[in-house]
Amino acid sequence: MTAPVITMDSGGDGEDGKKNKMVTMQFILPALYGKAEEAPKPTDERVVIREEGERKYGVVKFGGVASEEVVKEKVEKLKVSLETDGFKVVGDYLLARYNPPWTIPMFRTNEVMIPVE
């Protein structure tokens, strides 16, 4: 598996039964695949391979467990910091995790990424 694994939440909170929470997961393919067409074909129809263009992000790095509470706090602080510095937030945050789930929490590396202009 490649790192980071990038996730994005969309939809509801999944708790009240009104909206199902959906999580999109992204994996970065090795440079050996110069174009999306060169990557192995997925065997699951829910998996899509696509190229992403360049983007600009505001990023904050943090260690430990990336719980919903911690991520929410990091996102809010980063948004305030970006807006204070004159950046315009142009989308939802992404969460990048760099370690396998069995990594001891104090050794984990995570990032919250917010697209900006």
From TrEMBL:
Gene3D superfamilies: Regulatory factor, effector binding domain
InterPro entries named among the record's database cross-references: Reg_factor_effector_dom_sf, SOUL_heme-bd
Pfam families, per the entry: SOUL
Family from the record: Belongs to the HEBP family.
Protein's name in the database: SOUL heme-binding family protein
Taxonomic path: Eukaryota, Viridiplantae, Streptophyta, Embryophyta, Tracheophyta
